[in-house]
C-alpha cells in the first residue's frame, strides 16, 4: 500500500496515521477515529470500525475491530458484491422454517449469479467435539463429563497425543433434567463462542477448556504435546544420544522406551546396561504401564523417575554408567551416573547432552484445545431454503451447494442429512446462540448458483441483491478471516464426475 | 420481498463513488461518502421520489471533493463579511456562521453537516414531492409542501437515545432545519451540554447555532470537567489548541442551572436576532428551552425503549429518532 492511490495507513513520522479513504485525509491518532467515525487508528493500523461506534468505546468493551483491507490494497471503491459475503450470524431464523430463510441474497461472481441462503439453524441435536492436547490422564474412557455438577457429555476415544470429549447433544440438552439441559446448553454455547469452560470428569481431572488455548489440567497449564510415545522418541533421537549417554529412558504414560534394548539402540551397537524396568514389556525396549497415569513425568503419576527402575544387574552394569531419564515432552529430565554400588546418583547434565533434551521440547507442538461444533441441519431448516427439502440435502451431497457456518468452511458427513462440523475458531465472534428449549443456534449458509437454486425449488421471489443489505441497521461488516477460503469463490466439485 | 432500488445509472462514475443503497424498509435512501452519512426520505408521487433519489445521489458525488478543495479556509475562524468561498455548499456554511462570528469563535466547519443536508435536499426536491428530509448524522434539512408536516422526536442524550418529547413542524412554520450538538456527539464541543437541539429556518443555521449554544452551556472554572486541546485528539481539528470537553462529572443542581442559564441566554439572543426559531438544551437530565410553551419541549411521549433493547447501532437509531 505504498503509493498515493491506495487507501490505508500512511505513516506520518510519528504515531499518527493519515487516512486517505476520502479527500478529508484525516490525521488520526492511535485509539481515535477520523471525522467519519468509520476508520480508526488501532496501534498504527488503519481499521474500519462499526458505524458511529468510536474506537475507544469499542475497545473498552472488548468489541471487535477488524483490519479493513482484504488483500492489503484497496482501489478506493466500496466493495463490490462479490467481495461481500453475508454470514448468518445474527440473521435470525424463521423456525420452524415454513417461511423463506431470513436472508436470501444474490451476488454476481465472475459473471455467474450466486445465491446464498442465510439462516440461523436451531439445533437440538448439536454439540461439540473437544480435542485436548495432553497426555495427562483426564479420566477413563466413557466417564461422565460435568459442568457445574451436571452431566453434559463424556470422555470418548483418545487420539494420538490428545484426549477427546463429546459434549452436548440431544441426550443432555433435552433428555435429562431441566437443569442438565440448561447447563449443557450453556457450556456448549460458551465453548462454541470461544469462552473458557470448567469441566470435571468423574474419576478424573478438573479441566479448563477454551478453543485455541492451552488446556489447564488440575490447575496446571499444559504447555506442549509430547513429541511421540517413549519408543518413538527413542527412534527419533537415538543418534543424537549415541556417545553422550550409555542409557536413555524416555518416560511415557503409554509406552516407555529404553535405548539400550530398543531396536534403534541395537542398530547403533549400544551395549547392554543391565537396566531393570518396572511395568510390562511389550517388545524389546518398549514398556507399558511403568506407572499409573497422572500429571507427573510423561503423563504418569511419578515425580521421582528412579521409582520406575529396579536395581541394575551387577553382572552387566558398571560404575560410571551414564544415564539420561527424560519425559516425552522434555519438560522433565534428569542425568545420573552409577556409583561404585551401581546406584544412580543425580549429576548436572553435561553440555553435550542438554541440547537433545531441548530438541525434544522444541519438537513438541503447543498443546491446544480445539472445539468442533457438530450439528445436523437435516430437519425443517431446509424448508427455509427450498420448497423441496430433500433436494437441498442431495445438492449438498453432490457438492452443488456449498455449506458454510458463519462463512467458515465445514466438513459435511457422508450419509443422510446435512451433518456438519466446523472449527469454532474460524467462525466470527459470538456467532452461536441458544433458544430456551434448550437448543443451540448456529449460523448456516448455503451457497449455490442462481440457476441451481431455481432448479432445486428455491424461494426465487425472496432473493435480493447483497447491495440491498448495505444500509441494514443491524449489519456488522467484518474482514474475512485470513485462512478461511472465500465462500463465494468456492467452485462446485461434483462428485459424480461427468 | 425483493427491494426496489433506485437506478443509480445517473450517478457519474468517479473513482470514489458514494455508497448508495435503500434501507431495508424500502422507503429510505442511505447515502454515504467519507464522513457524510445521509438518511433520506421523500414522500409523494413514486416517479418524483425515484427521480429525487437519483438526483440526491448524483449531487452527493463530488460534493465532498468540492468542500475539501477549500478545506484550509473552512477550518479558519469565520468573520462578518462577504463570503470568500466558491463551492456552493461552502457558501451555505459561510452564510450560517458569519452572523455568529462577531460574538464567538466559530469556523464554517460548525455548519458543514447542515449545509451538506441542504445541498442534497435542494437537489432532491421537485414537483410531485410532498415532503422530504435529509438527515446528516442528526443535522436535518426539511422540505414541506403546502399541507404537509413532520413530527419530530427529541432525545436528550445522543449516546443513550430515548425520546423525551416531540414537535410537529407544519408547513406554515419557518422551521426547515434541525440540528443537535453536544460534547457526547460526533463533533467536539467547548461546552458541557449533553445535547442542544435547535430549530432554524435552514439546517446550516441550526447546525451552527447548536454548536454556539452547546459551547455556551459551560462552567468555565469547574475542576472536575476534563478538557483537552482539540488537536491532541484530532490533529487537524479546526478548533486547534482550544480545549474540548472529554468528560463531565456529576454536577449539582445549582451547577446544572448555572450552566444551562449561560446557554439559554445565548439561545434567546439568537432567537431575538431571528437566526433561529427555538432551542432546547439538555444537561444531565435537566432541560430548558427558549419557549417553554412549545409542545416540542414537553415530556408528552412515553420513553422509547431503553438503549439495551435497541437491536443495533444505537447512535444510528438516535438520529432516526429525531424525526420519528
Question: What would you note in describing this structure?
Answer:
The complex is a heterodimer of chains A (498) and B (324). Chain A is of the alpha+beta class. Among the domains of chain A are: 9-67, no CATH class; 142-160 and 170-221, no CATH class; 230-362, no CATH class. Helices cover 14% and strands 29% of the residues of chain A. In chain A, the strands form 5 sheets. Chain A has an 11-stranded antiparallel β-sheet with strand order 16-15-14-13-10-11-12-9-24-28-27. In chain A, strands 7, 8, 25, 26, 29, 30 and 31 form a 7-stranded mixed β-sheet that branches. Chain A is elongated. Chain A starts with 8 loop residues before the first strand and ends in a 33-residue tail after the last strand. Chain B has 324 residues and is α+β, with helices and mostly antiparallel strands. Chain B has one domain: T-fold (Roll). In chain B, 29% of the residues lie in helices and 24% in strands. Chain B is built from 9 helices and 13 strands. In chain B, the strands form 3 sheets. In chain B, strands 1-2-3-4-5-8-9-12-13 form a 9-stranded antiparallel β-sheet, with helices on one face. Chain B has a two-stranded antiparallel sheet with strand order 6-7. In chain B, strand 2 and strand 3 (36-44) form a beta hairpin. In chain B, helix 4 (88-97) packs across helix 5 (112-124), helix 5 (112-124) runs antiparallel to helix 6 and helix 6 (203-216) packs antiparallel against helix 8 (253-272). The two termini of chain B are 24 Å apart. Residues 1-15 and 295-324 of chain B have low confidence and may be disordered.
Amino acid at each position: 500500500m505504498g503509493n498515493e492511490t491506495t487507501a490505508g495507513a500512511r505513516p506520518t513520522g510519528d504515531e499518527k496515521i493519515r487516512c486517505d479513504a476520502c479527500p478529508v485525509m484525516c490525521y488520526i491518532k492511535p485509539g481515535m477515529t477520523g471525522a467519519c467515525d468509520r476508520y480508526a487508528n488501532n496501534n498504527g493500523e488503519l481499521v474500519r470500525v462499526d458505524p458511529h461506534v468510536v474506537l475507544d468505546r469499542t475497545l473498552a468493551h472488548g468489541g471487535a475491530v477488524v483490519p479493513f483491507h482484504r488483500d492489503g490494497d484497496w482501489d478506493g471503491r466500496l466493495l463490490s458484491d462479490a467481495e461481500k459475503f453475508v454470514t448468518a450470524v445474527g440473521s435470525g431464523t424463521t423456525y420452524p422454517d415454513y417461511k423463506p430463510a431470513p436472508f436470501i441474497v444474490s451476488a454476481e461472481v465472475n459473471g455467474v449469479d450466486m445465491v446464498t441462503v442465510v439462516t440461523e439453524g436451531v439445533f437440538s441435536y448439536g454439540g461439540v467435539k473437544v480435542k485436548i492436547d495432553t497426555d495427562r490422564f483426564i479420566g477413563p474412557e466413557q466417564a461422565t463429563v460435568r459442568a457445574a455438577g451436571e452431566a453434559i457429555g463424556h470422555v470418548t476415544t483418545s487420539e494420538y497425543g490428545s484426549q477427546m470429549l463429546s459434549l452436548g447433544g440431544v441426550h443432555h440438552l433435552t433428555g435429562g433434567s431441566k437443569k442438565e439441559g440448561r447447563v449443557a446448553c450453556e457450556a456448549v454455547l460458551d465453548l462454541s463462542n470461544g469462552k473458557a469452560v470448567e469441566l470435571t470428569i468423574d474419576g478424573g481431572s478438573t479441566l479448563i477448556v477454551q478453543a485455541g488455548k492451552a488446556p489447564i489440567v488440575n490447575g496446571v497449564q499444559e504447555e506442549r504435546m509430547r513429541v511421540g510415545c517413549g519408543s518413538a522418541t527413542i527412534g527419533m533421537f537415538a543418534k543424537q544420544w549415541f556417545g553422550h549417554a550409555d542409557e536413555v529412558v524416555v518416560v511415557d504414560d503409554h509406552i516407555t522406551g529404553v535405548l539400550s534394548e530398543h531396536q534403534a539402540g541395537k542398530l547403533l551397537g549400544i551395549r547392554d546396561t543391565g537396566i531393570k524396568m518396572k511395568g510390562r514389556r511389550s517388545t524389546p525396549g518398549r514398556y507399558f504401564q511403568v506407572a499409573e497415569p497422572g500429571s507427573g513425568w510423561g503423563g504418569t503419576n511419578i515425580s521421582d523417575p528412579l521409582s520406575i527402575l529396579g536395581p541394575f544387574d551387577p553382572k552387566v552394569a558398571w560404575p560410571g554408567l551414564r544415564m539420561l531419564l527424560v519425559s516425552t515432552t522434555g519438560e522433565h529430565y534428569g542425568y545420573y551416573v552409577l556409583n561404585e554400588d551401581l546406584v544412580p546418583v543425580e549429576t548436572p547434565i553435561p553440555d553435550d547432552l542438554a541440547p537433545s533434551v531441548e530438541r525434544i521440547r522444541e519438537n513438541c507442538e503447543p498443546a491446544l484445545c480445539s472445539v468442533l461444533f457438530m450439528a445436523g441441519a437435516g430437519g425443517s431448516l431446509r424448508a427455509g431454503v427450498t420448497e423441496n427439502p430433500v433436494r437441498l440435502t442431495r445438492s449438498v451431497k453432490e457438492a452443488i451447494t456449498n455449506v458454510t457456518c458463519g462463512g467458515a468452511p465445514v466438513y459435511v458427513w457422508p450419509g443422510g442429512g446435512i451433518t456438519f462440523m466446523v472449527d469454532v475458531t474460524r467462525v466470527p465472534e459470538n456467532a452461536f446462540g441458544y433458544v430456551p428449549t434448550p437448543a443451540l443456534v448456529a449460523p448456516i449458509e448455503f451457497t449455490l448458483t442462481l440457476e441451481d437454486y431455481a432448479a432445486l425449488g428455491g424461494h426465487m421471489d425472496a432473493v435480493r441483491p447483497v447491495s440491498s443489505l448495505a444500509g441494514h441497521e443491524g449489519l456488522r461488516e467484518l474482514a474475512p478471516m485470513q485462512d478461511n477460503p472465500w465462500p463465494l469463490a468456492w467452485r462446485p466439485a461434483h462428485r459424480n464426475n461427468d | 420481498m425483493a427491494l426496489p432500488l433506485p437506478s443509480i445509472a445517473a450517478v457519474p462514475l468517479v473513482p470514489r463513488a458514494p455508497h448508495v443503497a435503500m434501507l431495508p424498509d424500502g422507503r429510505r435512501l442511505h447515502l454515504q461518502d467519507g464522513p457524510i452519512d445521509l438518511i433520506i426520505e421523500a414522500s409523494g408521487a413514486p416517479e418524483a421520489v425515484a427521480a429525487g433519489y437519483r438526483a440526491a445521489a448524483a449531487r452527493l458525488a463530488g460534493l465532498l471533493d468540492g468542500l475539501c478543495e477549500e478545506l484550509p479556509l473552512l477550518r479558519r475562524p469565520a468573520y462578518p463579511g462577504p463570503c470568500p468561498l466558491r463551492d456552493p455548499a461552502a457558501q451555505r456554511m459561510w452564510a450560517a456562521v458569519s452572523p455568529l462570528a462577531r460574538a464567538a469563535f466559530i469556523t464554517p466547519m460548525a455548519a458543514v453537516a447542515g449545509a451538506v443536508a441542504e445541498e442534497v435536499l435542494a437537489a432532491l426536491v421537485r414537483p410531485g414531492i410532498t415532503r422530504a428530509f435529509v438527515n446528516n448524522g442528526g443535522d436535518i434539512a426539511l422540505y414541506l409542501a403546502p399541507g404537509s408536516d413532520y413530527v419530530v422526536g427529541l432525545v436528550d442524550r445522543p449516546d443513550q437515545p430515548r425520546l423525551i418529547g416531540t414537535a410537529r413542524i407544519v408547513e406554515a412554520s419557518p422551521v426547515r432545519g434541525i440540528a443537535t450538538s453536544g460534547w457526547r456527539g460526533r463533533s467536539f464541543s467547548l461546552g458541557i451540554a449533553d445535547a442542544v437541539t435547535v430549530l432554524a429556518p435552514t439546517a446550516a443555521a441550526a447546525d451552527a447555532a447548536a454548536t454556539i449554544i452547546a459551547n455556551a452551556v459551560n462552567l468555565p472554572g469547574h475542576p472536575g470537567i476534563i478538557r483537552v486541546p482539540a488537536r491532541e485528539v484530532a490533529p487537524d481539528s479546526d478548533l486547534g489548541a482550544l480545549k474540548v470537553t472529554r468528560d463531565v462529572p456529576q454536577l449539582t443542581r445549582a451547577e446544572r442551572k448555572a450552566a444551562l442559564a449561560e446557554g439559554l441566554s445565548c439561545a434567546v439572543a439568537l432567537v431575538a436576532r431571528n437566526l433561529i426559531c427555538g432551542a432546547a438544551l439538555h444537561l444531565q437530565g435537566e432541560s430548558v428551552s427558549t419557549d417553554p410553551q412549545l409542545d416540542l419541549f414537553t415530556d408528552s411521549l412515553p420513553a422509547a425503549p431503553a438503549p439495551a433493547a435497541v437491536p443495533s447501532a444505537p447512535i444510528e437509531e438516535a438520529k432516526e429518532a429525531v424525526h420519528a
